[in-house]
Amino acid sequence: MMQAIKLRKSIRKYKDVDVSPEHLQNIKTIINGAKHLFNNIPMEVLLIEDGSKITDTFKGLISKYTKVKAPHYLAFTSEIQEGHLENIGFIGEEIVLMLTELGIGTCWLGSAIKQDLFKTIFTVKENQNYIILIAFGYPLEPLKPVTTRKRFDKSKIITGALDTQYETIVQSIIDAPSAINSQPWKLAINNNKFDLFLENKNILTKKILKDTNHIDIGIGLSHLYNSAIELGYKIELKKASHKDMGNSEYIISAILNKN
Ligand SMILES: Cc1cc2nc3c(=O)[nH]c(=O)nc-3n(C[C@H](O)[C@H](O)[C@H](O)COP(=O)(O)O)c2cc1C
């Protein structure tokens, strides 16, 4: 997955062809096998093979969507419970990274869609709501390792001493996608314990991204989790009875141990 983290970037231009039937089959398997952050929150991933169902329906309503015209989309629905947004981010980003390994491009699309309209076109399970889309397809330009990204410096992301053995893991979070590139993650590292906080560093986008930033946190956690696993760590994820830290909202802790 670490190679996928390096290769991944948001793809907004796709080849005008469908993904092969073999790849679509792989994607269904990936969706079914994706790890959940919270197993108790009912959620679904809808594989929308006919992307025009999205682009035609939401054309004119939401300009951002029509900007990212892809052959296919994944739509996420979930029950609204504490942690459901982090759960969707965590599950969705693992799917993103696995699609990247297949040479498939992706882009999270977070603009608001009217629930009622969505529900007239797609079957949404009782008690669940539409949450977010991921566009996907073969990228116009093949994926290659991204060498520079517009990101905050490490010093804005972490507090506490960073042991060199964890540098790759912290870098994997820095490389993660986030809405409007807001990078709302903050890590307090204490030995092998990573406390993850949500902190939007931009006053202008803080309100608009209030909910979406919780998806970003799940995405960042997926990068942390998948890179740590690849580096041979065993990870325990648990919510401690922590206090928020200044402007930062405590979300979850990851405890890393070598197998
Ligand atoms: C939750 C979320 C929502 C996003 N929504 C949109 C969107 O509506 N339109 C878009 O073009 N990009 C969207 N993006 C992509 C971000 O702009 C992108 O991840 C960020 O600028 C960093 O660039 P990178 O993904 O290429 O590393 C979204 C990303 C995330 C994680």
UniProtKB/TrEMBL annotation:
Residues 2-227 form the Putative nitroreductase TM1586 domain. Keywords: Oxidoreductase. InterPro entries: TM1586_NiRdase (IPR029478). The keyword Oxidoreductase applies. The keyword Oxidoreductase applies. Pfam families: TM1586_NiRdase. Belongs to the nitroreductase family. This is Nitroreductase family protein. The lineage of its organism: Bacteria, Bacillati, Bacillota, Clostridia, Eubacteriales.
